[in-house]
Specification:
Order of helices and strands: HHHHHHHHHHHHHHHHH
Shape: globular
CATH architecture: Up-down Bundle
CATH superfamily: MFS general substrate transporter like domains
Number of domains: 1
Distance between the termini: 32 Å
Oligomer: single chain
CATH class: Mainly Alpha
Structural class: mainly alpha
Radius of gyration: 20 Å
């Protein structure tokens, strides 16, 4: 492929990546899934099942990233989207808790497979055009589109749940099916590692990619990755968020509309990432986000009633900023051949709180002690912020 064709393919890649990202955010069931799951399982059972499934996804995160770096990101993304399409349909048509849990397993394993590969293929497409400095702008745009699609899908999901409880899950599956179609249109940017697969290369890729995340500069941000991103992931994916809403008498439609509304400021605020990256150091931005998240969890620990809707809206904006912030930091400081593995390592580490809290968290929620759980989480985040604040931070790898 000549240089002109490569550049055109890279431009097309970015467009396709934005479209795929849009379909990836078709969370039609996000405001109502707990109400549907509680037909088959208790909070404790949801916590146990989630803990086991997320643990498996946790263990597969880095190996999937290494596999993407070795066999190609496009191939792994295709397999991931097949799995992520099957899962929601299984949940939507389930008649038993076993099929529900199996569908959840298919989805989460596929989601783990795509995380590092998707971000890496976008960054390397820009790098192929020598425009990697624009990655923060691309990520902000992709995230904004994602939040807008998320808002629309939540409204549709909330309304259709009242018609039939299975419709939001079926729409969710269709969204990923369309994403699968667009993965076939991706172009694979060249990397040094792509070639014949071997187990020795695979093991080495895992080790080298993990080393990147523990490099002299990036390891300073491990408290931010594990604690801040970890508790944001726990809030978004566990039963905690819908349980907080349910405790404050918000039904499935009310929660869907609230989450949809909260997507609007998140979509707007993430556009500020390129602006802040030029004016605030990586460390300062991370510390500020730490304290902001701790404050939100602190508010959840108070008996605010319907006023808890305010931190439920604001936490989405913090989440959008935090994930974009850390993703850009990693991509700017990791070599091309290890990028998918390093990003996957980040997504693996941020699942640590979920793995540790899934079972006990479900039991705590079942017993009605949500406020106490939120207070403990707020204190842990403050400790992480102080550790990050008093650490000496080295210069970025590619400063």
């Amino acid at each position: 492929m000549n240089t002109k064709q490569e550049r055109l393919s890279s431009i097309s890649n970015i467009k396709n990546a934005l479209i795929i990202n849009a379909f990836k955010n078709g969370w039609f069931m996000s405001g109502s899934w707990l109400f549907f799951w509680l037909r088959f399982l208790s909070y404790s059972e949801i916590g146990l099942a989630d803990g086991i499934t997320v643990l498996i996804a946790f263990l597969l995160e880095i190996p999937f990233g290494a596999l993407a770096d070795l066999i190609g990101r496009k191939k792994l993304l295709t397999l991931a989207y097949i799995s992520m399409t099957i899962g929601p349909f299984m949940m939507g048509f389930t008649t038993s808790k076993e099929l529900l849990l199996l569908g959840n397993f298919f989805f989460l394993v596929g989601y783990s497979a795509q995380s590092g590969a998707f971000d890496a293929i976008a960054y390397d497409s820009l790098k192929e055009k020598k425009r990697e400095g624009e990655y923060s702008r691309y990520y902000a745009t992709a995230t904004t589109i994602g939040w807008i699609v998320n808002a629309l899908s939540l409204i549709i999901g909330g309304i259709t749940f009242g018609i039939n409880e299975r419709i939001p899950f079926i729409l969710w599956g269709l969204s990923y099916a369309f994403g699968l179609i667009f993965t076939s249109r991706l172009h694979e940017p060249p990397t040094e590692n792509k070639g014949k697969f071997s187990m020795m290369k695979y093991v080495k890729q895992n080790i080298d990619g993990l080393k990147e995340l523990f490099s002299k500069y990036l390891r300073k941000f491990l408290p931010f990755t594990i604690v801040v991103l970890g508790f944001l992931y726990f809030y978004d994916w566990s039963s905690l968020r819908p349980a907080i809403g349910k405790e404050n008498n918000l039904d499935s439609l009310a929660q869907s509309l609230l989450y949809a509304f909260s997507s609007i400021p998140a979509a707007l605020v993430v556009q500020s990432i390129p602006y802040f990256k030029k004016r605030i150091s990586d460390k300062a931005g991370s510390v500020i986000l730490c304290f902001m998240l701790a404050f939100m969890y602190g508010l959840f620990a108070l008996p605010l009633g319907h006023w808890n809707a305010i931190p439920m809206v604001l936490i989405n904006s913090i989440s959008a900023l935090s994930f974009a912030w850390m993703n850009v930091i990693i991509n700017d400081n990791v070599d091309t051949e290890h990028r998918a593995t390093a990003v996957s390592s980040m997504y693996m580490l941020l699942k640590v709180p979920y793995v540790l809290l899934a079972v006990i968290g479900g039991s705590i929620i079942q017993e009605g002690n949500i406020k106490g759980l939120n207070l403990v989480i707020a204190l842990v985040i403050i400790v992480a912020a102080l550790i990050l604040l008093f650490q000496k931070t080295d210069k970025p790898k590619y400063s």
